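Q: Please design a sequence for this.
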């Protein structure tokens, strides 16, 4: 090491890192806060642990029941058949968590002639911990990893694509704007005089006001409106990939069909809501997905499908019939678990109506637009 060069000490916790970062560079917006809290290479929530399941912090649909992945597998096989059974065809999952959904998709489609020979499994995952779990669950020789959507867009082999994203968009950072009599203010994270993380506001800068230009009238004074340049950027890249190669994307997430005001940023630890600024890096952070914002930039209405509720989507795909079959070959205890899982996935007061499903397609196959199942 050259004399006089002192290495920056490694922070011991995310809180320590954030406090130093804010002291050195000033307050950060909510999007930067989410990005650091989830993705800091050493202390970021997703970067250091497996957060899923009963012993983790939260549970997602594929972790609740194999039936979810089986329905998505049937959806993917159907769209691949509509596409004329292309070989090769990229099957990309964005944010695959523990790899459970992809493993269930592959298991559910193993008897679809030529499907497994044709699809190339690609995973978009930023977390090294989760990447190694995914490799174990799906098979290291079967998967090709990307750390960013840019890397998918730049992938040199061109082929049609089927893209699945379950609870991926909600993890992408949002920024929060508050409408006031004096104009838009942006919510930020700063420090108290005693150097504790603290919420604050500053006048919103021009680059972010652009995103709310059209909706000022819809937002009452003092209400928060969330915008996500990062989500829109990822969505745009996905649309570009679709228009270059043809194919379909399926987005499943919790959120609202129409843009609306509201602070939906939430922290969850141990299956309970907790304060966003306490215990940073140890709680999952998400915000609801604004489906209208994802759709308005899509030009061809014929190639937008949904959003519909998760309940309607899964029922149209036949989840009740599948549950009935599984129950018929199950023990009493298993049958009761199947019932519970079905209710959890589809009941309106559980995941059935808060979760929405949206698909975009692109291209004509055998002279026809794609008609994804479930809508
Ligand atoms: N789809 C899974 C997991 C959802 S949790 C399931 O339903 O169980 C969010 C997933 O997205 C995790 O795998 C997380 O590591 C990944 N992720 C979050 N932000 C990301 C980003 N910016 N780039 C790549 N992966 C990301």
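A: Design:
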């Amino acid at each position: 090491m050259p004399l006089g060069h002192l290495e920056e000490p490694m922070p011991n916790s995310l809180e320590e890192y954030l406090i130093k970062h804010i002291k050195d560079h000033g307050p950060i917006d909510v999007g930067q806060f989410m990005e650091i809290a989830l993705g800091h290479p050493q202390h970021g929530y997703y970067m250091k642990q497996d957060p899923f399941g009963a012993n983790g912090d939260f549970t997602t649909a594929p972790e609740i029941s194999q039936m979810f992945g089986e329905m998505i597998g049937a959806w993917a096989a159907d769209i691949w058949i509509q596409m004329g059974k292309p070989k090769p065809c990229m099957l990309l999952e964005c944010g695959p968590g523990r790899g459970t959904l992809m493993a269930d998709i592959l298991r559910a489609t193993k008897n679809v002639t030529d499907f497994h020979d044709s699809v190339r499994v690609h995973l978009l995952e930023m977390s090294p911990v989760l990447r190694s779990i995914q490799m174990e669950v799906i098979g290291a020789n079967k998967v090709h990893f990307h750390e960013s959507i840019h890397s998918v867009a730049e992938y040199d082999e061109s082929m049609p694509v089927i893209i699945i994203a379950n609870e991926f968009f909600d993890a992408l950072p949002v920024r929060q704007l508050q409408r006031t009599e004096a104009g838009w203010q942006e919510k930020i994270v700063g420090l108290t005089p005693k150097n504790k993380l603290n919420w604050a506001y500053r006048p919103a800068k021009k680059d972010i006001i652009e995103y709310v230009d059209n909706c000022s009238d819809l937002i009452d004074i003092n209400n928060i409106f969330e915008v996500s340049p990062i989500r829109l950027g990822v969505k745009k890249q996905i649309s570009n990939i679709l228009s270059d190669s043809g194919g379909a994307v399926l987005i499943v997430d919790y959120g609202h069909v129409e843009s609306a005001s509201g602070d939906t940023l939430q922290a969850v630890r141990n299956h309970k809501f907790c304060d966003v600024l306490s215990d940073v890096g140890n709680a999952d952070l998400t915000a609801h997905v604004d489906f209208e914002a994802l759709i308005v930039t899509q030009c061809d209405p014929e190639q937008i499908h949904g959003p519909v509720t998760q309940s309607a989507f899964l029922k149209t795909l036949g989840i009740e019939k599948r549950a009935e079959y599984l129950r018929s070959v199950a023990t009493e205890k298993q049958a009761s678990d199947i019932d519970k899982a079905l209710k959890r996935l589809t009941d309106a007061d559980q995941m059935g109506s808060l979760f929405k499903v949206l698909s975009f397609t692109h291209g004509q196959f055998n002279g026809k637009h794609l008609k994804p199942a479930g809508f």
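Q: Thanks. Anything notable?
A: The CA atoms of residues 313 and 374 lie 5 Å apart. Confidence is low (pLDDT under 50) at residues 1-6.
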